[in-house]
Amino acid sequence: MLLPINWVKKYVEVDMSSKELADKLTMTGSNAEEVITLREGISNVVVGKILSVEPHSNADKLLVCKVDVGTETIQVVTGAGNVAAGQLVPVALHGSKLPGGITIKRGKLRGVESQGMLCSGEELELKDSDYPGAETDGILILQEYYPPGMDIKEALDLGGEVIDFEITSNRPDCLSVVGMAREIAAATGKSWSMPEIVLSPGVGSIENELQVEVENPDLCPRYLARVVKDIKIQPSPRWMRRHLAAAGVRPINNIVDITNYVMLELGQPMHAFDLDRVEGRKIIVRNARPGETLVTLDDKQRNLTPDMLVIADTGRPIALAGIMGGANSEITGETKQIVFESALFDGASVRMTSKKLGLRSESSSRFEKGLDINMALTAVDRAAQLVQELGAGTLVEGRLDVLGASTEKRKLTIQWEQINKLLALNLTAEQISGILTALGLEISVDGEYMTAIIPTYRNDIEGMADLAEEVARIYGYDRIPLTLMEGSASKGARTRKQKLIFSIKTALTGMGMHEAITYSFTSPHIYQKIGIGAADYPPVVRIANPLGEDQSIMRTTMLPSMLEVLSHNYNRRIENCSIFEINPIFIPKALPLTDLPDEMLTLAMGEYGENVDFYTLKGKVEVLASLLGLEDKLTFQPARHPALHPGRTAELLMDGKAIGLIGQIHPKTAENYETDAGTVLGELNLQAMLDQANTDRQYQALPRYPAVTRDLAFIVEKNVQAAEIAELIKKGGGSILEKVTLFDIYEGSQIPEGHKSMAYSLSYRADDRTLKDEEVNKAHQRIIDLLEKELGAKLR
Amino acid sequence: MREKLEQIKKKAMEAMEALHDLDQLEEFRVKTLGKKGELTLVLRGMGSLPPQERPVIGQLANEIRTALEKALGKKTVELKEAALEKRLEEETIDVTIPGKQPDLGKLHPLTKMLNELEEIFLGMGFDIAEGPEIEWDSYNFEALNIPQNHPARDVQDTFYINDNILLRTHTSPVQIRTMLKQKPPIKIICPGRVYRSDAVDATHSPIFHQIEGLVVDKNITMGDLKGVLDVFAKQVFGQETKTKFRPHHFPFTEPSAEVDVSCAICRGEGCRVCSHTGWIEILGAGMVHPKVLEYCGIDPKVYSGFAFGMGLDRITNLKYGIDDIRLLFENDIRFLKQF
Ligand SMILES: [Zn+2]
Q1: Residue B81 and residue B196 share a domain
Q2: What CATH code is carried by the domain that includes residue B129?
Q3: Which of A446, A748, B83, B155 has its C-alpha lying 20 to 30 A from B179's C-alpha?
Q4: How many CB atoms neighbour CB A211 within 10 A?
Q5: pLDDT tens for each residue of B122-133
Q6: How far is CA A338 from CA A225, A230, A380, B23, in A?
Q7: pLDDT tens-digit profile of B32-53?
Q8: Which residues in chain B are contacts of A486 at CB distance < 8 A?
Q9: Which of residues 20-79 of B touch A (CB under 8 A)?
Q10: A2-4 and A309-312 as β-strands: parallel, antiparallel, unpaired?
Q11: Tell me, what's the ipTM?
Q12: Chain B CB within 8 Å of residue A508 CB
């Protein structure tokens, strides 16, 4: 909110600079974002009185003026023809600054000394709304008397400072000049006042002019109206236009300006209807009827629904309650009589309608926050007073006031020591009541109890904590001591799951993988991109209001995210890239969603580059399995996935249940994602692995007897799997077989077509004795026999 | 005979001095002391000596043998040493050639920063609580004193799944879940991923990360809140860091504050990072609103508490001098390797 300092000074004394005031208020809860100096670009431009005008001796189009600028009389050469002796004009003195960074210096024009410059409205960047005639060609001729030498910004009320405050949603009362006057007073210890409202008697009686009926008092607890006749639409006076402009509101005409002025000053939105266009001279506050429409002031047709509150006449809606007026009852240049509306509308209702229609206004954003039921009355009278002050029309005597709720102030009783207890302070009851009184509360203290009567503009104060905040912010947050809480010691420890994830990340980075973090929403087109047919698209959680289609579903797989990261790096010519991410994927239990989806913690991995293949990634998964104590539960078996190479993909099974997938990407995937064809990817259900993880370890005695190592090489058919062979070797080797290591696989010359040679190193050992050769030979032979029998292996 | 022996000793000693490698030395040993060596040959000729001279000459011969053996031993050590030195000299490498680095992966800067912050709070006795990213509207808003059609919902532009389910806009629902299932004392931090429908630019991301904290117990005061956050700020940004609490409004805390820390880069002088104010806003905080405690079945007359929240991404960027939040989600290896 823009608060013009000159305006607020009407209601509170300010004895510090605007910067100091801004800092002070920031520390009491009104966060000042900026102090703006109006017309900062204009300096040292003063009112000058033209004493004489002579032709220039060397130029037909130039004139030489003698000008009284207060302290002296100077000579100025001008090219404008509209100057004459006796006029008051803006004069830019030597060294003055004009908007756009222009500096004026004395000099000679065609040989004649000029000690400054007479200014046009345009040169001062003034509009007609700033000063009448400012947009006319030629020097700006001032209409009123100002003493020569007076600063032009002061004379025309162009300057001043404005503080831009960020007002929080609980304080709609601060969205007004008087509200801020009250805050300034409380923060600086000054007193403040409301505008004094005195009305001259009106003509006739409002009862003969207008009727008001409120059908839905829940959504409209109060509706006030006043009528003004003999309206003369004209520009409002300069002081009003200046204040409005400084507060960021464009002046329009006297009636519209009065409604805006009252809203900015008191915080109460106002509306004016052209009474001649209100059918039946009756205002009805009611819910919209099915199918009704209204063209609002911004010329858009709005389709209304029965949950929306409208202001209607006897025939049709003429305004959206609290949001915007209708074009059908708008003030025009021909308007002769008007109705001022000042009402209280239900905040939630205004907000709902405003959201539904996508129409927000200054008015709606105020009503949403909940306004003061009593300010509505003050405001309608203030508008009437301004009409009389401005001579904008003839006020009709009386006002209509349809009241459907209490205007009483609420009472709140607390134990005032609770405030000290919450804030770690030791204030006296007097100190507390002093602060609250300054904020407009009426306080009485009875022993340990304190009763506060809450003004109706402070709907946000509901309990002790709210009062404590008022006390704290005015007393000063900086005066609350730093303490460290007493009480029960707590452990402060990571959970088992958190510790496991920590160690997994440590292991993965230790194996050269970098951690990636990617978005968890994605495009519905990813499934197609990784080769999944439309019939197989999984059920997904869809965002109702996504930023775009590309971010409209919650991911059910992290493979596309991995591919995107790998592709990003591949396309930047990064030769090696190895990444992982741990985050949940989102699996709906049923669609449409009635319960929260399962968030399945997932480990995604991906890598490409030199020395990367299926086995480098598989090896990392095996290391993880061992870290989690799962090596005996996990098995790999060939599997298919549309994104992956059909011959180089494995499913990871834990106790026979699929919990993940690793594989080299399919050439089509490489093409779709523009990434390395040798890329390998993996996606594991980390949640399942963590659930089964066993990280308890027991010391195993180191071997005391030597091992016997035997190598074994044989030829088998190419399609025989290593897992099958390992199984047979273990079976044949029995309990003395300690370790089986596959060290060579060979196909090619000397090996029959469709076969491969496999070479293993077997290590035999017993815990309790040195093995004898015969024992080892027997076991070794059993292995050979089994391999020959089961697989037709031929020993090499 | 005596002269001959002395002669042999002298000659041998001289010859030995001139030798420069171990092979020559061995050859020399055989030649001098071996079975067919000079000394042996001399001793074999002892038979021709008169018997009374034999012990004397024998002793002399043994002395000479011992002396020569000792000298030989010494010379051997010397030559071995020299040979080793020579070998080592030859094996010299250029130690300025770059090392062979194993690949070390890096944790994402967000994780690194999070670990650091978690350690600080773990040290102060906080536990770490987590919760779902897709949440009930009621936990994300209503429990936090933000009813339907409340203007405070504007501040947090929300992604909805349907009327009741949304992408959490803060990790506060984790606080609610914790308070609903655990009686005070409660002392937790809630780190996690949150969502707000902000378009992406250098300082905004629709997905970002928060750490919130919650303490609920008897006699918890706003002084405690200030104390804990002051300790926290000093640990993260340095011991000289100052904190400034400014009044603010959050529906779920009362009183509420925004917390600034003195800019660590300019030490409060004012610079680009702190927009020339000397202060950087990093936290929102306050005393838990009585209505929030009530919603969770905790009696606000008996218990009080404080809560705070901060943006992990923002703190990470401040700490590492990252000027664009998008870098955090792009996962360029050249970026990730820097941390
Ligand atoms: Zn700074």
Answers
A1: no
A2: 3.30.930.10
A3: B155
A4: 16
A5: 999 999 999 999
A6: 10, 9, 13, 126
A7: 888 887 778 777 777 777 888 8
A8: 219
A9: none
A10: unpaired
A11: 0.87
A12: yes
Each residue's pLDDT tens digit, A592-605: 999 999 999 999 99
What is the per-residue pLDDT for B32? 82
Looking at chain B, which residue has its C-alpha nearest residue A543? Answer: B161
Give the up-direction half-sphere exposure of residue B81: CA atoms within 13 A in the CB hemisphere. Answer: 6
Q: Cβ distance B130 to B329 under 8 Å?
A: no
Domain count, chain B: 2
Decide: A294 and A264 in contact? Cβ < 8 Å: no
Residues in CB range of A734: below 8 A, 6 or more apart? A779, A782
Question: Domain of B212?
Answer: 109-336
Query: Which pTM value belongs to this model?
Result: 0.86
Cβ atoms of residues A34 and A75 within 8 Å: no
**Are B43 and B129 within one domain?**
no
Q: Does B132 touch chain A (CB under 8 A)?
A: yes
Phi, psi of A25 (to 5 degrees): -70, -30
Which of B25, B59, B90 is the last residue in one of the domains?
A: B90
A709's CB contacts (< 8 A; 6+ apart) are A761, A762, A763, A764
Q: Which of B58, B90, B122 is the last residue of a domain?
A: B90
Q: Is residue B97 part of a domain?
A: no
Rounded to whole angstroms, the Cα distance separating B339 from B335 reads 8
State which residue of chain B sits closest to A353, comparing Cα positions.
B149
Could you tell me if residue B86 is inside a domain?
Answer: yes
Q: CA–CA separation, B52 vs A684, rounded Å? A: 99
Q: How far are the Cα atoms of A531, A533, A709 from residue A645, in angstroms, in the given order?
A: 12, 16, 37
- Which runs of consecutive H residues, i.e. helices, occur in A523-633? 526-529, 559-570, 614-627
> Residue B255 corresponds to which amino acid?
P
Could you give the C-alpha distances from B16 to A192, B38, B72, B107, in angstroms and in order?
Answer: 115, 14, 8, 66
B57-85: per-residue pLDDT in tens?
A: 888 888 888 888 898 889 889 889 988 99
Neighboring chain A residues of B151 at a CB cutoff of 8 Å = 169, 347, 351, 365, 368-369
Q: Which chain B residue shows the shortest CA-CA distance from A514? A: B105
> Is B103 within a domain?
no
